[in-house]
Structures are given as structure tokens and as C-alpha cells.
Specification:
Largest sheet of chain A: 4 strands, mixed
CATH class of the largest domain in chain A: Mainly Alpha
Helix content of chain A: 40-55%
InterPro entries (chains A, B, C, D): Acyl-CoA_dehydrogenase, Acyl-CoA_Oxase/DH_mid-dom, Acyl-CoA_Oxase/DH_mid-dom_sf, AcylCo_DH-like_C, AcylCo_DH/oxidase_C, AcylCoA_DH/ox_N, AcylCoA_DH/ox_N_sf, AcylCoA_DH/oxidase_NM_dom_sf
Largest interface: A-B, 107 and 106 residues
Subunit structure (chains A, B, C, D): Homodimer.
Cofactor (chains A, B, C, D): FAD
Shape of chain A: globular
Distance between the termini of chain A: 72 Å
Strand content of chain A: 5-15%
CATH architecture of the largest domain in chain A: Up-down Bundle
Oligomer: homotetramer
Family (chains A, B, C, D): Belongs to the acyl-CoA dehydrogenase family.
Radius of gyration of chain A: 25 Å
Structural class of chain A: alpha+beta
Protein name (chains A, B, C, D): Acyl-CoA dehydrogenase
Order of helices and strands of chain A: HHHHHHHHHEEEEEEEEHHHHHHH
Number of strands of chain A: 8
């Protein structure tokens, strides 16, 4: 079968399949432009017809052993060329904050990112893969012209890749004030010493630039002014990539999650981003939209897992005890709950994206936190049901399920563990306490007065 | 303190409290008219300042023993007069389907219903209480002019109340084809025999009309054509209200949940709604919007429970082990999760409401089912956390929590238990199986071909 | 059918039904004496054949309104007479700590209490009902001869009932150091002032004695020496039973949960138990076995709920969508999980009971806490499934389910909320940290040394 | 530090650490012999002091790429020699069924297996590793003398390893009647054709014998008589190990999970076990004790995860937001719940083991199923909490947590997915329905009669 028949067959198979645009929740529809609708449908087509079929080839071209880190699968360049030609390039830079991107809103890009999340290759093919996306945002927002020319341009062109180096192995770096890598000014240079890990993407031979967070002023009383961000080219003298960390048993080559040592690494003062002591400001600006991207891709992964589950439980070869799996009530309940949980999570993320679009990420702290916490837990649950419905096939390399699960499991930890976000959300919500207590107290007083006037015996006694 | 000071104090207490309109999720904002915004703010004010303070009086006026069923609390008529004056009357009849209501969309009314759900008295005060709402919809949609004049007009005016009699004690009536009450044509009359229960509202002395589902043609091969709906005045000869059922110990007087016996009850043929055999059609049309109302009120109840929880854990008299409860991490997590779960559920319901607004309830079967299943489970969880944070006070009459929990617990059963809806949702979702299986098969074929052409060893083996 | 046919029929119906003894988990069997086996089988028979059938009569005899508190159902005295005759009396006082009881171990009595938990009337019929059990333990352990003669003897004979007054409405009394009722010595008397609530059993006209916890020395630096326990006869001047609290909508008459005011209540100094400042010591000794009793009765309630669920899903009148409920996979999974969860919880409680038997309740703090936390949550889950399988019938007075749920819901709060116990359990478990950290550190050191000696490249890096 | 100091230090660190024997739940203590107590303490010492430190070396010696499958880590032979010397060898064969083992009961061995589950190397070191254990049981129970001599003896000596080949890639083999590998008699030989996968252990170069399930009589009307079991030496002509399957990215080398093709594989008729058509009988006998072993090892893994969690949250380097993790209430609750859930699961397994000891595995079907379903879900929950408390370190190779999680995740699928077991458990429990319905009906009748005689108005109406 030629690929050109594919869409037609897809159409034929079910009479009237829904387009990606048809599947936008109606409550979000009004905020999506016609141009975005077209791009969204194109993204879905590109992902389903080009990227997903290429995923197995991508993994196969990776090979084994050291080879996995020495090059990258050639099919990626073919996909990138196709995406560029289709105009599906740098879709992530939102129109109200950047001029360099494709000009969509966070909401619109979020809808597209969902489809990218269904394929191992799609995000990178469209130059929308983390951590490059966040790094490009940092450079576009805070970089000098020279920094932009040197690093942002090739990143926007998809010629190089990048890594973001914040987390450290020896401290609890979910509290970012704990980081210890030192950046000491010496003349016109800074000297960097310390250790980083979970430097995702640093394993890739195309990764040319590290965006590094360290401390220029570790004794500043304001613990949020101690940090700075600098640009360190990969391969700078004194930088050693010590090893790559696995995620469950996956090495995630060629991307990788590196542990990197800095020993007297010297970089020119011009490599400083924004200025000394402004590291926190930079990373905070970086986090919001990235969480939306992760969340929407995870929703795509959950949708994919649900598709695979449905495919399995309708597989005529997989009857047990005389029944198709789709006839088992428990399985139908899994499917129904998965549908419901995915739909609820998607609305939470789209609402957060629109809240960012209204103003900026600070405007949407609550909504982003909700998405950050809800989505990975939902996706893990849905994927795990799919794994279970596949039996042993679900845990191995014959489905994308186990790998998707492992990837998304890290999202409950990355950018701060769920629990830290929940504590912060709880504290913020609790700020309403004075207002609430006063309101309830007044309601009680008025109510008591009404009962007194009416001369009846009160039922209950308000506790407040 | 006079009530007129109340709003000012509310305002004063927290600088800049959010209005109800401010709290509309941004993703829904665009679909809410200015007129609805105004009404919504007015509803919030009415509920918080008038209805909630009146709730204790309402309960106190109910009294004890038989008295609870003989009259109804006088405060209700005062509240109704106020609501009418404020224009907060019959808000529930959506503008695209009815002319008699206040002219709001389901989405807009949904937002208002949330606030009504925070008070025992608010829905009735605004003439928006079940089962009258659904019954008015039935009469407005399907009633003859005479039927409308006799029953719809006084219902719209809030002069009488009504009950809907479908469920039966001796069969599994979650499958409505199982009902057994017979309606036999004899000349110009029908003779009704059978038993109904959970006839909510039939305990109220103001309840004047029963909308009764029975079988006119129990042997019709089409099991969905056997049923008819008739209008039976309360007190018709042969009708006996046998007893009222409790809900976790609550009698819900004066409303009540009655068990009612029909022994040779004769009604004129003109009491038939729409025509013989059209009972299913009628009840199906009745269900959609009502589920949205229940769901939004439950969300209001959950918000109220969260407010009470926050009030408690900030109560300076309630320190344990040297700490305020709001300093306990577990409690903060409860608050955060409650916030998140409420917000997700609300989006699901608002999306369903908007889907109905787009066309009709049939258009929104999936979305309504999602709301039906998700919201009560969410609200029960949130309320139960609040109960737990109150300790013993939470289970008794001193907070509204235990009663709200019991009310909402019935929603997991009413209109079909969760499990029936989940099975149906699962089956619907599973209808995508052919389309999905074909898509995955084609993706696999193309992928295999790519791997073959590239001449590399494949990793994994697609299971499909 | 005469009652004498009952056992025979029971037997006939299934060939070979298991006795209560047969159902003892094998791991506990060895610790149960032959005498206990016989008593256990007798308890089951008494509960199933006498008490459960009498439950409806008990409720019916209670009547309505004020009458519910003025007397108690006459059937209770008949049941008590039967139980005494069968030797099923005061079974709860464990043989290694008391001489007054029937001479069983906590493990053995626990097995019996499970069956009592299946009936509203059984525990009281066997003089094994809370709070009398705990109060009799206090009197037997700490009472003077005079106190024993006056109060313990009639309690052991089932002639009077009693209440335990600790919890207070205005403080967070889950932390018992917070109680405020004052006990001031004046000459040969103490003067009591303060308020108590949740004084369970104080509603009963037979309740003659209150065991009251208060503060004799509120300024003692040792916050655990401020409290004392005194015996206050019901009806003492200055004592006012203000109202009874409901549990969800149940009033639990005639037992009741009273709010009681103490205004200058004078009691002789001889009413002091054990001595001033020894209140904590007394309540701590009181708590352990009582938690086992509650837990085992809750397990009985869960077993009863499971029986009712099975009865329902096999009811031929209750087919939905052409199937018996027992053919629905989801329902079968509920049954299976209920079986499993009940069995696991029972083992936890029996193990705790045996740990008490080995020495005393202090020996079993961890095990008792595990039972305290696990059992109510399990029972609530199982009962809620049964409610759901009954549909609307499950929430009302036509099954024992809703009432059982409400009763057990209070156990997540009584004797300290779950969360307080979990925090304490967590802290205790965390005391192992030094031992564990040292062990892991040594393992790491030895392991590193082995790797070094072997001259291979280490995989992973121990975090510890 | 020399290893000889280790125990002393362990002791010193905490005054009086509990021995393994001290930690036996009291309810099981009576059934454990003195000899077993000694062995148990020895097992703990061997695991903690020898095996766990050796685990990192074991993984390190495995190396990378093809090398991982070509040999096995030399440290294993050292550990085996030590275990043999200590008498910790073939502990698994229960004394009431076999003469070849160490003479312990299933309960006693279960206690030991828990400790083995804390180490990657311990089970194999004691010659107690799956699938050899089950295979040795099959050979000991059903093998001819020749079969025993050829295969059982070297297995008992730990000289060779083995695999069990049942699951097939193209069918739903959780229903074992679905298997398709054919075994055709031709003269004095059988010819085998078909495909197997998840043949665990077949990757190991020491694996010399496959125990293969196939169909000798695929058309037999009795679908449980079609299967036979044969012994096929690894390397037999026509047998191809095609690939090894991964488990969440882990290859589990050198053990491995192989996919194996049989093409006209010829084995002598003497390789048949027990006789044609007796395959089902053999695998059923094989399953019970193996599930106990898996379950107890999983409990050991959960205990280890809890130890690692406690170590982390007390790590002074890992403060966040000014607090040690052990001061966060949420973390303390995780620790407490983990303690409770592990303890409950252990009692379920020990009770099942004792039930097998009483007679045999058939006697304990319910209890084994409970252990099979409960334990993996519990262990996954506990381990996942530990992962979360470690943050990024938890998902990678620096802790044993991610790998343990992946291993145990397969247990929810192996030997039949949880859902199949739950359905079966539900059906079995539901067999009580007639007995229960009759009992409840009689109780209702007697109760109604009592109410009638007493002449009171009945409250409620029994539904049964």
C-alpha cells in the first residue's frame, strides 16, 4: 500500500472520521483561529501518517551499545525537511510574546502538541522538542544580539541542539536555592566549578550549547539573587560528560540524561545571560509554557495508549474464556474512565494555556500548577491500564506503552515533585481563609438573628 | 450588624474579593453574555447574603415529627418574593429551546446553578428546583395548551410543586424498560395500577401534580414503545402516599421521597402527554439539562465544603499538637487536591452545557455522561475531606457537610447508577475500534516497509 | 416457619455450611481454645437466629419523636435474658487481665465480636456494648471497692448503662491535652464546670453513671498530669443534657450522643478514680482493647454488607439489560475485592489482638494503630459498594447498609482521626532511620570495595 | 571496614535491633519451628551482609552489549558456595511434599523468601530462584527416575538452570487452553512446532533444559486434556532463541525473557512428563507455592523500598524549603501507610502458605489468589512512593527502586492478569448466594413475625 492511499483508507474505514479540529472541545473552539485549525489538521496528518510510522525506524537506526550515542537516526532529517516544507516549524513560540515563531497562541499550539505527543519523532521533527523550546525562549527573551546570533539562530533553524543544566546530584535541587555550582568572576571571565545531572539532551552529538544555572553570589542574603545563568558551549575545556542516567531501563539515546562535571571551566563574561543574580527570574519565565507543552504531549500519549488498548481488546486473536476482551465489563469501564479522565485533564490544560495567552505565565500560576499535577497522574493511569490489557506484550518493546509510561513517570518529578506543587497550591488556596471565615461568621450572625426573630428553636449550631 | 452592611464588609475584609464573574474559567468566559454576567453576580449575592443565612431558619421552621410534612417553612415564600423581585426566576429554561424562561443558555444557567448548590433554599427560591424544573420542561415541550394552562402556568409562577414518578420498588428500574405500572385504556379514561417510589417532592403539601410513567402497551415488541407518560393530580382517588424514604437518616422533609401506591386510579385520556407509547421519548428529552443542573449544584456544594474546610483549619481554637491544622502538610494537600478536582469537574460540566447549547442534549450524550459520572464522585470526595477535617462536628447537624454528602451520594444512583453509564460510555468509545485497528495496521505496514528499505534490524515488533 | 427449623434449613440449603469456627483464618486457629470455639459457634447462632431477626423489631419499638428517648425497646431485655442463659455474657473482659469476665483472650473475643457487629442488638444483648465495656474495664482496673460495688456490679449485671465524657465542643479534643472542664477541689468535694459532647449512651434512660475526664491541675507543667477522671451520677445537680447530636441523619436513639453542660456540679472526693492527675493513665489503658472490639464489629458489618450485596446481585427480580447483576464483571470484581479486603483487615486485627494477649496494649501500639486506621476505611468501602449495588434501596431504611455506613464513618474520627494515627505511625517507623542509614551505608561501602577489587566499572552509584 | 565488623556495627547502631525472628508477626509465630527460626536469622544475615553488597558487583560484572548474554557474573558462584556452606540451599521444597529440600514448611520458607526478595542475587545464591524452583517441583513430583537423574539432580545441585515454556506470542495465553504449539507423535519421537515467548531464564548460558507445554491432542473435546508437557534440551536442533524481551527497558540479562521458535524439533517419547494429555494437571500443581514465593519476595522488595525511602527522607543533604523530608506530614503518611499495607499483605501471604501446609495448594485456592492479587499492587504502591521521595534519583540506576518496580509490575500479569483472578474469586464467593439468600429470607420472615406479634408499626422493609 502506498502512503498516498493512507488518508483515503482512513476515511473509508469509518465513513466520517473526525478531524483533529472536530475533536477540539467545544468550550475551546471559539478561541482557535482558522489558520490554527488548518495547521492543527496538518499536524495530525503529519504525525499519524509520517511520524508514527517512522518511529520504529528511528529506534531501529539507533542501534546498540556506544553507537547509540555517536550519531542520530538519519530518518530525523527527512522528517524535519518534510515538516519545514509543510510549515510545521517552530510552532511553539506564542504570538503574543515572540516574533520568531509560527504565530500561534499557547492554546492553539497546545492542541498541536497533543498530537506530537503521540510520536517519538514528531516534536523534534517540527523543531518543537524540549529542552530546545525552553532554551530558545530564554535566548529570545533575554539574550543579547550576539548571543541570539550565535545560538538562537541555529536552534531556530534546527541545526544544533541544546541542554539546560540546573539539577545537581548532591543536593535537593527541587528547591532551586540549594544549587551549588559556583561561577566566580576572574577578570573578564567566569570560572565554573560543580556538578550537574539530568542534563537532558546533552547526550546528543548535535548538542552544542549548555544553558547553565549556577551561583555568582552564594552569600547574598536574598537567596533568590544568588543565581545566574550562563551559556557554556559543549566541549569547553574542563567540562566532562561523565555518564548518562537511565529512566527505568531506558537510556533515551541519543538524547540522554547526562551527568556533567565542571572543573575550572572558563567562559567569557559575555556568556552571562541578562546579568548577575538574575538566574531565578530567567528560570521562572521559562517554566510556564513548557509545562503546558509537556502536559499536552502527555495527553497525546494517553490518547495513543487508549487507542492501543481499544485495538487490543478488539483483537480477534485475543479471546479469553470464550470472550473478546471488549465484552468484559471491567475492560469497558477502563475505557470509559480513560476517556473521561483524558477529557477532564485536557480541559484543565487548555484553560491554563488560555490563561497564559490572556497575559502571561504569572497570570496563570494556579492553572499551570493544576495541569502540572493532574496530567502526568492521569496519563500514567491510562497507560498502565493499556499495559495491563496487553498482558506481557505491554511491558516490553513490542508496544510503545512501557516506554511512554517511563517517560511520563519522570514528569511527576521534573520541575518539582507533585508534592511541592500541591503544598504551594494548598497554601495559595488557604490565603482565602480570612475572607471565608469572615463571610461564614456574618452568615451565621444573620442566620442566628433570623432564627431569634422567628422565635423557633434552632436546629444545629454553626461551628463558625 | 444589618444585612445592608454585609456586602461592604465582605468587600472590606479582603481588599478585592473576586466576583462570581471573575471566577468563570477563562476558557468559558467568551461564551457568557454581559446580561448573564450581571445575573450571575446577582445570584451569588442573593445566595450568599440571603439564602445561606436563611438555611438554618428554614431547617428550624421545619420542626419535628408529623409537623415536618404538614406545612413548609414560611421563610421560603419570603425568599421567593425577593428572588422574583431581583429577576432571578425560572433561570433554568434555556433560551434556544424555550420562550418561558429568563433567556439564558445552559452554560450561563450552569454557572448560576453552581451558586444555588451552596444553599438548601436557593434553588427553590429562584423556582429552579428539581423535580419541578424537569417537569416544567416536559410540559413546555410536550404539553397540550390545556395541560400547560392547568399545570405549567402555576409551576412557572411557583404556586404549586410537582413530582416525577418513574422508579419502582420491585424491579431494577435503572433499566426503564422494566417498569410495571399499568395504564389501561377504558373508554375515555385510563386506569392505573402499580407502585412507585423515590417520588421526590411528593411529600410536600404544595405538590399538586404527578407526572407518571407507566405501560400502556406492555406487550409491544419494541420495548421502547410500551411506555407512556400521564398527568395525575395528587390526591386522585386510589393514590396512596404510603411512606417517605430516608437518605442516610435524613427524611428531606417537606420535600420527601415518597412511596406511592396506585389502585385503580382513573384519569381522563386528556391527561396523556404526547400520546401513547411515547414515554421513552419524553424521559430522554428530560434528562440532559437536569444532569447539568445537578452537576453544577454539586460543584457548588463542593466549593462550599472547601470553604468550610478552610474555615476550620484556620480556626484558632482548633490547634492540635501545637499547630494550626492549616500547617499540617496532609491538610494542605487535601485543600490543593480539592481545588484541582473541583476545577476539572467544573470544566467538564461547562463543556457539556455548551455542547447542549450548540444543538441539543442528544448532541452531548458523551459530555453529559462524563459530567454525570465525574461530578458526584468528586464532590463526595471533597465533602468527605471536609467532614474529616471537622472531626465529630462534621458528621452531625452543626455543619451542612454530612447532609450535603448524603444528598450527593444519591446522585451516583439517580438517573442510572454510575456503572451503567460507564458501560455505555465504554461501548460508545469502543465503536472506534475498527477505525483505530485499521489505522494502526497501516502505520505498522508503512513502518515495516521503511525499516525494510533502510536495511536495519527492527527493534520491537508491532503487536497489531 | 418456627425458629427451631431455622438451623436445619440453613444446613439443608447448602449441604455443608461452614461454622464460625471453620471460618477462623488458619493462621489464627492454633491460638483459639476449644471452649472459645464452642462459644464462637454459639455466638454466631445467637446473632444470626435471634439478634438479626430482632433488629427490625428493636427499631420499630423505638417509635418516633420524644418517645425514642423516654424508654428503650422491650425486645432488648428478652435478648439479654437469652444471652445470659446461653452463657454469652461479659465476653469482652480478657482472661489475662480480669477475673470478672467469661475468660476469653482478646483474640477469642475478637472473633466473637465480629459476629456481634452484624446486628444492631447483639453487643448489648451480650453486655458487650460500648461504652460500657471500656467503662467496666476502667472500674475493674482502677476502681475502689466502693466504686466497684456501686457501679461495676450493676454494669456487669446489665442493670444500668454508662457514658464516658471526654470530648469537648470548643477545643480540638483529638489532642486530649486540650480539654478544659475544670475539677476544683473544695473541701471534701470537687466542683465541675465545663461542657462535653459526643457523650455516647447518655441519651439512654438506663444510663446512670458518667465517667468524666477533666482538669484538676490545669497549670501543671507536665501537660499529661493535669487531668483526672471522676465518677458523676447522671442527674447530679448542675448537669444538663442539652441536646443529642445526629450522625448523618441518624439520632441513634435511645443511646444517643449527648452534649452535656456542667455548672457547679459537686461530687464527693471519693468519686475520684485512681487519684488526681492520673487521668491520662486511665484513658490510655482504656483505649487498646476497645479499638479491637470496634474493629472486629466493623469487620462483621462489612461481612454483612457483602452478604447483602451478594443477595441483591442474585435477586432474580433485579435483572438489568437482560442480565443478572452477578453476571456483570464489574460487580464480580467488587465482590472479589471486598472478600480480599475484609480478609486482610481481619488478619491485621487478629494479630493486634494476639499481640495484646501476649502482654498488654502498650505492647501492641503499632498493631492496634494499624487496625484502627485500616478497618474503618475498608468497611466503608465494602459497605459503599453494597449501597451502590442496591441502588436507591441502599441509601434508605430498607437495608441496614446506610446506617452501618454512618456508624462506621465515625470510627475514622473517634479516638483520634486517622491522620493523627498515621502521623504517629510514621514517626515511629521513622525511628529506624539511624539503624537503616548505617546499614545501607555499610552495604554500600562493602559493595564498592567488592567492585573495586574486581576491577570492573561500577553500574549505578549508590545514593546513600 | 572489614565485613566481620559489620554485624557488630549493625548491633551497635541501635542498641537492640530486631532479628528476623523477632519480626515474625505474632499470629504466625507459633507455627514456626526452632530450626526454621535459626535458618531465618541466618538467611537475613546472609542477604544483608553478603548478597546485597554483592548486587552492585553482580550488575557491574554483567557488562554491556552481547557480553551480557555470553556469561554470567562470577560473584554468583562465590555466593552459591557460601550459601551451601551455611546450609541455605534448596530451602523452597516443602517438607510435607518433598524429601529433597531443606525440610521447611511453606510458611517457614515464605518468611525466608521475604529476605531473599531484598537482593538481586540472594534467591539464586540459595538455589531458590524461579523458574528453577517450579521446574524442580515438577520434576520431583512427576518425573521418571531417568528424567530426575538427568535434570533434577543437576538442578538441585545448582549446576544448570532451566526454563518453563508456556506463554505464546500470538494467542491470549492467559487462558492456557489457547496455546498452539503442536507435539505430534511420530514413531518413538514427538515433533514440536510453534512459538513461545516470555521463556524466562532461557537467555542464561547455563540454561540447559526447557520444560515445554504444547498440544498432543488439539481436537480433544475436553479442552483440558489436549495439553502435554515435554522436556526439551536447550540447543536441540530446530530450536531458535529469536530475541529477548525487555521489561520497561531492562533486559534482565543474563536471565532474559526469550522468544523461542520450534521448527520440526524432535524429542524422544521418553521426554514426555507424566503422560499425554496431563499438561494441565502438571501446571496446576506447579502454580500454588510459586505464587507464595513471588509474593513473599515482593514483600521483601517493598520492605527494602521502605528502608530506602526512610534513608532518603532522613538524609541531611536533602533538605527542601528548610525542612528535612521526614518532617513533611505527607511523607510521614506515606511511611505509615507503607508500613500498614506491607503488614497486611504479609499476613495474607503467610495465611495462604499455612493453608497450603495444612494440606496442599488446592486447599488454598482462595488464599493463594488473594496473595496473588494483593501483594504486587501493594508493592508497586510502596516502591512508587519511594521513587517519588528520591526524585530523579529514583527512576535511574542509582537506586534499586525503578528496577524492582519493573520486575514486580510483571507479576500483575504473569500467571494470569489480576482481572482474571478477581473474576474467578468473585464467582467463587458468589457461590454462597443461595445459602445467603435463604438465610436473609428466613431472618426477614422471623423478624416480620416478631413485629407483627408485637403489634408495632415496622420501620423499613427488608428488601429480601
Amino acid at each position: 500500500m502506498s502512503k498516498s492511499d493512507f488518508s483515503q483508507n482512513l476515511l473509508a474505514s469509518s465513513g466520517k472520521p473526525q478531524t483533529a479540529a472536530d475533536k477540539i472541545p467545544i468550550i475551546a473552539r471559539g478561541a482557535v483561529s482558522e489558520r490554527a485549525i488548518k495547521a492543527l489538521n496538518l499536524v495530525e496528518k503529519f504525525v499519524e501518517e509520517e511520524c508514527i510510522p517512522a518511529d520504529v525506524l528511528y529506534h531501529s537506526q539507533l542501534g546498540e551499545g556506544e553507537k547509540r550515542w555517536a550519531s542520530y537516526p538519519p530518518v530525523m532529517d527527512e522528517l524535519k525537511a518534510k515538516a519545514k516544507k509543510l510549515g510545521l516549524w517552530n510552532l511553539f513560540l506564542p504570538r503574543n510574546h515572540f516574533t520568531q515563531g509560527a504565530g500561534f497562541s499557547n492554546l492553539e499550539y497546545g492542541l498541536m502538541a497533543e498530537y506530537m505527543g503521540k510520536s517519538r519523532t514528531a516534536s523534534e521533527a517540527c523543531n518543537c522538542a524540549a529542552p530546545d523550546t525552553g532554551n530558545m525562549e530564554v535566548l529570545a527573551k533575554y539574550g543579547t544580539d550576539a548571543q541570539k546570533k550565535q545560538w538562537l539562530t541555529p536552534l531556530l533553524n534546527g541545526e544544533i541542539r541544546s541542554a539546560f543544566l540546573m539539577t545537581e546530584p548532591d543536593v535537593a535541587s527541587s528547591d532551586a536555592t540549594n544549587i551549588t555550582l559556583t561561577m566566580k568572576r576572574e577578570g573578564n571571565e567566569y570560572v565554573l566549578n560543580g556538578s550537574k545531572w539530568w542534563s537532558s539532551g546533552a547526550g546528543d552529538p548535535r548538542c552544542k550549547i549548555y544553558i547553565v544555572m549556577g551561583k555568582t553570589d552564594p552569600n547574598n542574603r536574598d537567596t533568590y539573587k544568588q543565581q545566574s545563568v550562563m551559556l557554556v558551549p559543549a566541549g569547553t575545556k574542563g567540562v566532562t560528560v561523565q555518564r548518562c542516567l537511565s529512566v527505568y531501563g531506558y537510556d533515551d539515546a541519543p538524547h540522554g540524561h547526562a551527568q556533567i562535571k565542571f572543573e575550572n571551566v572558563r567562559v567569557p563574561a559575555s556568556a552571562m545571560v541578562l546579568g548577575e543574580g538574575r538566574g531565578f527570574e530567567i528560570i521562572q519565565g521559562r517554566l510556564g509554557p513548557g509545562r503546558i507543552h509537556h502536559a499536552m504531549r502527555s495527553i497525546g500519549a494517553a490518547e495513543k495508549a487508549l487507542e492501543w488498548m481499544i485495538a487490543r481488546v478488539n483483537d480477534p486473536r485475543k479471546k479469553t474464556f470464550g470472550k473478546q476482551l471488549n465484552e468484559h465489563g471491567v475492560i469497558l469501564e477502563w475505557i470509559a474512565k480513560s476517556r473521561l479522565e483524558i477529557d477532564a485533564a485536557r480541559l484543565i490544560v487548555l484553560n491554563a494555556a488560555m490563561k497564559i495567552d490572556e497575559k502571561d505565565a504569572k497570570n496563570a500560576l494556579k492553572e499551570i500548577a493544576e495541569a502540572k499535577v493532574l496530567v502526568p497522574q492521569m496519563a500514567l493511569t491510562v497507560i498502565d491500564r493499556a499495559v495491563q490489557s496487553y498482558g506481557a506484550a505491554g511491558v516490553c518493546q513490542d508496544t510503545p506503552l512501557a516506554n511512554m509510561w517511563a517517560q511520563i513517570r519522570t514528569l511527576r518529578i521534573a520541575d518539582g515533585p507533585d508534592e511541592v506543587h500541591l503544598q504551594q497550591m494548598g497554601k495559595n488556596e488557604n490565603k482565602r481563609s480570612r475572607e471565608i471565615r469572615e463571610k461564614l461568621e456574618r452568615q451565621r450572625q444573620i442566620g442566628d438573628e433570623m432564627v431569634r426573630k422567628a422565635g423557633v428553636r434552632p436546629v444545629g449550631k454553626s461551628m463558625l
